[in-house]
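Lab notebook page, bench 4
Experiment: in silico fold of construct C2
Operator: M.H.
Input chain length: 303 residues
Purpose: comparison with the prior construct
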Amino acid sequence: MISALLPASTSIPADWRDLLALTKPRVMTLVVFTGLAGLLAAPVSVNPVLGFAAVLCIALGAGAAGALNQWYEADLDAKMKRTASRPLPAGRMTRQTALHFGVGLAAFSVILMDLAANHLAAAILAVSILFYVLVYTVWLKRRTAQNIVIGGAAGAFPPLIGWVAATGDISALPVLLFAIIFLWTPPHFWALSLFIKTDYAAAGVPMLPVVAGVTTTRRQIWLYTIPMIPAAVAPWAMGLTGWVYGAASIALNAVFLLFALAVLANKATEPAAMKPEKRLFAFSILYLFALFGALVVDRWVIG
């Protein structure tokens, strides 16, 4: 099936830019940042070289997951305008190359994390890669509209991994950081899926707007925003962070709430009229960067 949808393979070796594209570098930026924030928020002093190695492993692990995702979903990517220019559907790389690259990168990232940090951090990194590839990509993506809800756990692991790489154990704060990203993921991705739902429908991916409709998706965005806000404020409310994080969290969540309300109130069904959804999607990225940035400032500036 996949071979029928993809262009004929070329004998030209994959360009380094195509290998980089396999790692989904734009997605990796947020993964690396939250992983670094988890490491820097830990109440221990980390050797800069080992800290760099740990963050590098998080980046490589995320890149490996992205490469294996594209290897498995090459047929879907070929059907969607947003992804048709990726290396595999565009015919610039063979699926075997993507598979070998992804598996090799995953193994290297886990082994290096084990050597540079500790066994627990390496184990959680391995679980995060396997979860994204096997649970989200292989099992959930094509089968259920809840793919983002359950699969979102994969993207919530980085701050937990960063913390464990620094401390060697798990405590309340990294668990809360995991929960924040887990609850943030559905509003973030469903906002995107609302204005590109025709792409998902064409590819046969059962994203929520495709199978349940626009109104239900907007309601679900609101319902996940509600628990996300107390989860985001909880680190300050529980005395695990200082006033800098607390103030930033309250302000950012107030804005997120307003954007989510605007999405809930929107009645448009055409992508061109989905400005509230586009604003929420754009702000959700800024929200996570700012929230985790405030966490680091709170730890290093305020103490």
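Observations: The two ends are 56 Å apart (CA to CA). Confidence is low (pLDDT under 50) at residues 1-11.
Next step: discuss at group meeting.
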